[in-house]
Amino acid sequence: MLEALRAKFSAHEGPRSMLLASGTAVLVEAAPHDFVWGGGHNGSGTNMLGRLLMRVRGELQSQG
Q: What's the pLDDT tens digit per position in 44-56?
């Protein structure tokens, strides 16, 4: 998934701009029934998608 997100945000200016515009905000996949990729309905999910998006955002920010 990490490589797919890197490819998506490297290749497409629109999504890359949106991701970078989030600055340092914590990103949470608002999926109430997904406790792995999302935050779950009560915030107890692992939010793997949000974590990966923040990682890719950091990589893009460091590239300038």
A: 999 999 999 999 9
Read off the pLDDT of residues 13-23 as tens digits, 9 standing for 90 and up. 999 999 999 99
pTM of the model: 0.93
Single-letter amino acid, residue 31: A
Nearest to 3 by CA among 52, 63, 46: 52
Tokens, residue 21: 């515009």
Give the CB-side neighbour count of residue 9, counting CA atoms within 13 A: 22
DSSP string, 3-58: HHHHHHHHH-HHHHHHHHHTTTPPP----TT-SSSS--TTS-S--HHHHHHHHHHH
